[in-house]
Design goal:
Length: about 300
């Protein structure tokens, strides 16, 4: 999972609401149908990897529900108890999603190891998966990859870390289906243990994505600074004003998916208070207009 740059335009509330509802409906409805089909194919096609894959798809239903709840809570306006808003609920939702993924992955891995131990001890027979399990793996790969790209597109449009995590749930499911496809094909070609080994591969993919989502979400709730590239663009924007002599201090901190900025800059000392104030107001407005992810910038003017 690569680190995505979540820079979203400020959408009208009605359009944002439509996108949130639509992507949630696609995630929930698509995963319910797909998990039911894969479970059917896994049982009747005698494929443990496909049954594991079905469980993973079912966990994505809960993941989408959590992502939806996190985004809705993050949208709430600031109040007396939360004067800085509720954006960090999105990061919390992303952390919960990563935990769901991790538990799912560990469960699949544990079941796979247990099956291998039974096979080695001779207490379990390995069934050769049927064609329906193979077809289900192909359908799952295509469907989940399409859901990944659609959810990712919506997440970037909204600037939503929770929906981006949900998109990577879809991608991890597509990857796990690739593992299932390899295992099922190998089992049908006379290497039946590959179907069980594929479950362990699925476990690896799920745990890897879960850890990456967790640590990215953690940055959103620990006042982590923004990247050097972002701060460089911020400095360039501020220096464009002809009256700015130097930037004395620039601190950024992530607040969920939004950014707070603290800025001190110097101007000529013979400027009037009103002129210095106008410059600070201009820079304040320009930064928040140029960088949609900046929720607020605090400015302080020093005499040069």
């Amino acid at each position: 999972m690569k680190k995505e740059n979540l820079i979203a335009k400020k959408l009208p509330p009605q359009e944002q609401e439509k996108i949130i509802n639509r992507v949630s409906a696609v995630g929930i409805g698509g995963n319910i149908l797909l998990s039911a089909f894969k479970l059917f194919a896994g049982i009747f096609g005698r494929s443990g990897a496909m049954i594991s894959d079905a469980v993973h798809s079912l966990s994505d239903v809960f993941a989408t529900v959590i992502a939806f709840a996190g985004v809705k809570m993050a949208e709430k306006k600031a109040d007396t108890d939360h004067p800085y808003g509720h954006e960090r609920f999105e990061s919390i939702a992303s952390m919960l999603l990563s935990l769901i993924l991790a538990v799912t992955g560990l469960g699949i891995g544990y079941a796979g190891i247990q099956q291998i131990l039974k096979i080695q001890s001779g207490s379990a027979d390995i069934a050769v998966p049927g064609m329906i399990a193979l077809a289900a793996a192909v359908i799952s790969i295509v469907t989940k990859e399409a859901m990944f790209w659609y959810t990712r597109h919506c997440a970037l449009k909204l600037g939503s870390r929770a929906f981006l995590a949900d998109a990577w749930h879809h991608r991890s499911d597509a990857l796990s289906s690739v593992g299932a496809l390899v295992g099922i094909y190998g089992a049908r070609r006379g290497i039946p243990v590959l179907d069980t080994l594929a479950s362990l591969l699925i476990c690896f993919f799920i745990l890897k994505v879960a850890l990456e989502i967790f640590f990215q979400a953690l940055n959103g709730i620990t006042d982590h600074s923004c990247s050097e590239e972002f701060e460089g663009r911020l400095r360039s924007c501020i220096r464009e004003h002809p009256q700015v002599r130097s930037i004395d201090l620039l601190h950024t901190r992530k607040f969920g998916e939004r950014v707070y900025v603290e800025l001190e800059f110097s101007v000529k000392k013979d400027l009037s208070l009103e002129e210095a104030h106008d410059i600070a107001e201009y820079i304040h407005s320009k930064v928040e207009r140029t960088f949609p992810e900046v929720k607020h910038i605090t400015t302080h003017v020093n005499p040069c």
